[in-house]
Inverse folding.
């Protein structure tokens, strides 16, 4: 069925897509926002740990399989509740509905990794085509429109900012206060984690009440800020944006003159539709956006839209988490959520002999069933020893960890599987490749700092968590598969997120990241959403972009 | 006689009569027979039935509170039939619970036997209806209605918040989607009362908190007794387990500091008292509370009822829950100097 | 009515019809009430507290789960009703897909135990039970009865499901009375204030 022609169609209602849709709708463009999931409400799943951990609570459902790498050259079919899927939710708001909501800015060095460190062997490490200064006003806009609580005054490594956060920082919890004292003694510079969560009532929604359940759950009082409760309602309120949920986009059509004409999609009843538009914005996340481009073959781009030089799907990155944990004699658990309150940025850069690093922070409250998976290597998983561990550690944890910035590799990639198709017959994504060996070195270095921190805070019986193998690119915080760049032969989009050679096809999600920072990437994806949206609007001359 | 009519009279009508009367016979059987042969023949009911059979309400037949099968309540009938179909159809097991409608019907039975308690409750804010709670412009203008409101107001509401009130924003104007709910109480008897508790059980066993998320009622004796802090000091709390029910809704913020959020834990001169030492359980009134402990005058010689506290006037800055002698009388005892 | 018939005949027809209707009515009532009276016996077609497991399977699984989370000064898997969690979820819930695994796995487990100890698992001493479980966990038992699932994979599955039943929400059938929450010292329902609204009304 042919849909009415619109100015813009945006694919994916997550962090990036919601913002672009709102920016375009507010500028007067007619927008259709397509989302493969539906709206999530708190009461559907409330604080049910088993349901949210075991079921496909936030999607995508079984109709969306992927192929996860087992050994190089071997894959197995997985659905989103299984490991190896690299899931990022399918619902209005996507991950921003139930994330932990850390709202980090990347640092200045994160945008020029090649200049800062040189290129490690075999890697595709590079500088971004934009600088932190370019993105700063858009970080600020994201912090204000979506809503961030924070205070960087005690962090000397914070990148420069024009204005303070719109909401005060959250106070440290009991574990945070112990870690603060320890950081001071070590001469490190602890500060409250910036959170996309209301510390005070903000823009008509509540302040956080500090419940026990945050990451992994929708917020019961709507104090956690995502695109679903900020920009998407704002986009709809303009009257210029139509949100269509439970639809699956199969292809972007690119004509013989190299222009995107619109997208094909299936609705909730599996009926095929054609949505023509003046411009197309892809915001399906690093895996689905790459998959969609690769599945959009045309005479001009026989290997997929924007893939003339085989860069679509390349450089798949996530974060290599590492950390340390130990037992505290006194109770560290104070039942005040969300739990993660304190961080240091002392080891993001400037580490002797290593390329990049990570911020370190304490963790969110781990709910009882999930805690049964928190064990030092070799610990008993059952019997009396299991029970004793639960009782001894649950309220006595001192734990810090960090997302190590990965070093991109050309061979770590998203492809489309030659044989396996989803419910609609669309070839599925398959992830392959490995992590750069240097990442493990950095992780060991960061984990050692984590160990120092918890030991100084009074922990005993400490163990560290460092990945042992190089398997598995992707995982959490997938990024990098359609990197932006100035050279069309070594990147997928230009510095404004516009796909090379296809003037009216844009990308607005983590795919654009050249490198992924040593931080949770949500706020950077949001800032890029504003950046891309701003440039689309600036170039817009009615009917078609200039 | 037209052949069509003959067919009707000879076959269709008797068949219809048979069907209707067999339904009446069936529902009549369920209405009048011993519960052991009807409701309680399903294993899902056995624990409820066992509790009821030793409870203070054991002399009442199921139907006297829950309504019988001979009813014209279409919702109740379809719900029951659906449950039977689901059970034998091997579908996903649905927990058995009362609909909000059934709870309001049940409430009339409570009233018939406990008219004084019912009248007291009606005089209190705990009887506030949906309109009073969810259409308050002052409240909605500062914090718009959320799913979480239903935790303490409308815990039995069958649906999600967006099915109750619209719009979910701070600008309004707000309306109830079902105007009939306006006067329905948001905190009905079953929010706090456990009807099937054994007669001999302690008072706190007869009270419960209905947790909407778990769809479970927690006996007051099993509810947490939280530590309440004044700075680092742990405030002395009454051992009365009944008040654990009160603190579920009249709760402090996450750090459990005294007097934060809606916490009314007594400190100061009244530290250690139970809510129910001063408040009537149903009316919430504390009007007679001073007299139940104090001789007319306090030890400082002033009539306690005229002291400048929130007992005398809501405007007073001395909250009766936390007032201490030194708040008004700096270092001295007036009347003795 | 056919006006051609004599009046008396018409009355006779009406009377006969009325009688027939009354009879049908009585029969209907009797069948309805009688049918309902028989109803309880229909429900007793499958006695026992389990929806998926046979009594013998359940007895074995209860014994395994109790080793995984044993009772000490706090209750264990049996006290928390872990079996009811697994039974309900395998029958028609979140663990449906594992139904064949349980059927085959428990049978293989039974055979393994019989072969090694010439006794049922439930009859062994605690030490012997632990030994059996450690052997299966390490995949050191005779692989003959084990095809799919493999013994160690089956044991990992049961451990994980036992944890779910012990620590998950009681709404799914386990964690009776919030046993595990009380063990960990976690308040439930959480005492947590929402706002500080003060009514404008007197």
């Amino acid at each position: 069925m042919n849909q009415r022609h619109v100015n813009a169609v945006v694919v994916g209602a997550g962090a990036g897509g919601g913002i672009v849709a709102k920016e375009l709708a507010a500028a007067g463009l007619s927008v259709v926002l397509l989302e493969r999931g539906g709206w999530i409400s708190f009461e559907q799943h409330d604080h049910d740990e088993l349901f949210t951990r075991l079921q496909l609570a936030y999607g995508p459902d079984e109709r969306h399989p992927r192929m996860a790498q087992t050994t190089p050259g071997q894959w197995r079919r997985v659905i989103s509740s299984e490991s190896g899927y690299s899931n990022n939710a399918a619902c209005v708001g996507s991950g921003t509905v139930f994330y932990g909501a850390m709202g980090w800015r990347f640092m200045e060095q994160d945008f020029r990794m090649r200049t800062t460190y040189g290129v490690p062997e075999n890697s595709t490490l590079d500088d971004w085509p934009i600088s932190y200064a370019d993105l700063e006003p858009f970080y600020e806009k994201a912090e204000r429109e979506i809503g961030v609580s924070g205070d960087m005054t005690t962090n000397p490594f914070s990148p420069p900012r024009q204005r303070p956060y719109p909401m005060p920082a959250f106070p440290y919890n009991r574990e945070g206060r112990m870690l603060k004292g320890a950081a001071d003694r070590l001469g490190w510079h602890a500060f409250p984690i910036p959170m996309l969560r209301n510390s005070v009532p903000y823009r008509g929604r509540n302040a956080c009440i500090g419940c026990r359940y945050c990451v992994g759950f929708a917020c019961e009082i709507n104090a956690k800020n995502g695109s679903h409760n900020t920009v998407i309602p704002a986009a709809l309120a303009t009257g210029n944006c139509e949100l269509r949920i439970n639809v699956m986009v199969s292809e972007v059509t690119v004509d013989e003159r190299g222009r995107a004409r619109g997208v094909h999609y299936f609705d909730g009843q599996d009926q095929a539709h054609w949505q023509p538009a003046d411009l197309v914005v892809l915001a399906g996340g690093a895996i689905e956006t790459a998959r969609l481009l690769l599945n959009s073959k045309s005479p001009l781009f026989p290997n997929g839209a924007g893939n003339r030089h085989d860069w679509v799907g390349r450089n798949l990155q996530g974060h290599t988490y590492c950390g340390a944990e130990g037992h505290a004699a006194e109770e560290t658990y104070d039942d005040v959520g969300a739990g993660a309150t304190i961080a240091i940025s002392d080891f993001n850069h400037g580490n002797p002999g290593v390329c990049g690093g990570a911020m370190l922070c304490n963790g969110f409250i781990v709910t009882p069933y999930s805690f049964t998976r928190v064990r030092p290597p070799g610990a008993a998983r059952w019997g009396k020893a299991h029970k004793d561990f639960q009782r001894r550690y649950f309220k006595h944890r001192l734990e810090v960890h960090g997302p190590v910035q990965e070093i991109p590799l050309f061979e770590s990639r998203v492809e489309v599987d030659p044989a396996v198709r989803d419910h609609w017959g669309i070839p599925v994504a398959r992830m392959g490749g490995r992590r750069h060996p240097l990442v493990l070195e950095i992780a060991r270095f960061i984990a050692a700092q984590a160990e120092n921190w918890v030991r100084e805070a009074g922990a005993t019986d400490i163990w560290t968590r460092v990945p042992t193998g190089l398997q598995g690119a992707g995982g959490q915080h997938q990024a990098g598969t359609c990197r932006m760049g100035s050279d069309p032969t070594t990147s997928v989009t230009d510095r404004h997120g516009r796909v090379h050679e296809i003037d009216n096809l844009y990308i607005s999600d983590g795919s654009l990241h050249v490198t992924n920072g040593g931080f949770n990437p949500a706020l950077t994806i949001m800032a890029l959403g504003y950046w891309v949206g701003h440039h689309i609007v600036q170039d817009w001359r009615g009917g078609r972009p200039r | 006689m037209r052949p069509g009519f003959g067919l009707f009279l000879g076959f269709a009508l008797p068949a219809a009569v048979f069907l209707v009367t067999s339904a009446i016979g069936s529902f009549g059987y369920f209405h009048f027979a011993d519960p052991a042969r009807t409701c309680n023949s399903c294993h899902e009911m056995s624990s409820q039935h066992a509790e009821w059979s030793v409870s203070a309400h054991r002399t009442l037949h199921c139907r006297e509170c829950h309504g019988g099968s001979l009813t014209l309540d279409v919702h109740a009938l379809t719900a029951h039939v659906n449950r039977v179909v689901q059970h034998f159809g091997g579908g996903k097991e649905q927990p058995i619970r009362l609909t909000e409608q059934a709870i309001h019907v049940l409430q009339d039975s409570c009233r018939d036997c406990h008219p004084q308690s019912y009248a007291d409750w009606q005089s209190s804010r705990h009887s506030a209806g949906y309109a009073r709670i969810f259409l308050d412009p002052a409240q909605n203008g500062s914090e718009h209605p959320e799913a979480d409101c239903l935790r303490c107001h409308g815990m039995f509401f069958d649906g999600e918040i967006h099915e109750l009130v619209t719009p979910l924003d701070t600008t309004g104007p707000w309306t109830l989607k079902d105007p009939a709910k306006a006067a329905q109480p948001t905190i009905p008897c079953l929010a706090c009362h456990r009807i099937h508790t054994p007669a001999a059980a302690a008072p706190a066993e007869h009270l419960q908190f209905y947790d909407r998320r778990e769809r479970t009622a927690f006996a007051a004796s099993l509810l947490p007794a939280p530590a309440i802090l004044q700075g680092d000091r742990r405030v002395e709390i009454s051992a009365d387990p009944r008040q654990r029910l009160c603190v579920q809704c009249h709760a402090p913020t996450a750090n459990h500091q005294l007097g934060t959020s809606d916490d009314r834990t007594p400190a100061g001169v009244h530290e250690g008292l139970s809510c129910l030492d001063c408040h009537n359980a149903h009316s919430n009134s504390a009007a007679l509370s001073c007299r139940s402990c104090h001789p007319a005058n306090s030890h400082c010689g002033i009539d306690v009822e005229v002291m400048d506290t929130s007992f005398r006037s809501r405007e007073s800055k001395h909250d009766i829950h936390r007032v201490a002698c030194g708040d008004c009388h700096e270092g001295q005892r007036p009347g003795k100097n | 009515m056919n006006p051609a018939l004599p009046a008396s005949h018409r009355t006779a027809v009406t009377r006969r019809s009325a009688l027939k209707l009354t009879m049908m009515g009585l029969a209907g009532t009797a069948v309805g009430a009688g049918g309902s009276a028989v109803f309880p016996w229909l429900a007793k077609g499958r006695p026992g507290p389990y929806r998926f497991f046979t009594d013998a399977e359940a007895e074995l699984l209860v014994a395994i789960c109790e080793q995984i989370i044993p009772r000490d000064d706090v209750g264990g898997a049996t006290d928390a009703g872990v079996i009811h969690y697994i039974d309900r979820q395998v029958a028609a819930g979140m663990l449906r897909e594992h139904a064949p695994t349980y059927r085959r796995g428990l049978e293989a487990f039974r055979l393994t135990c019989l072969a090694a100890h010439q006794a049922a698992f439930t009859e062994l001493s605690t030490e012997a039970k632990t030994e059996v479980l450690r052997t299966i966990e390490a995949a050191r038992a005779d692989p003959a009865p084990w095809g799919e699932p493999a013994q160690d994979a089956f044991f990992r599955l049961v451990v994980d499901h036992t944890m779910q039943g012990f620590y998950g929400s009681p709404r799914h059938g386990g964690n009776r009375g919030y046993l595990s929450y009380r063990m960990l010292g976690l308040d439930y329902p959480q005492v947590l204030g929402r706002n500080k609204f003060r009514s404008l009304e007197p």
Observations:
- Chain A touches chain C at residues 48-51, 54-55, 206, 209-212, 221, 335, 368-369, 371-372, 381-384, 386-387, 390-391, 394-395 (CB under 8 Å).
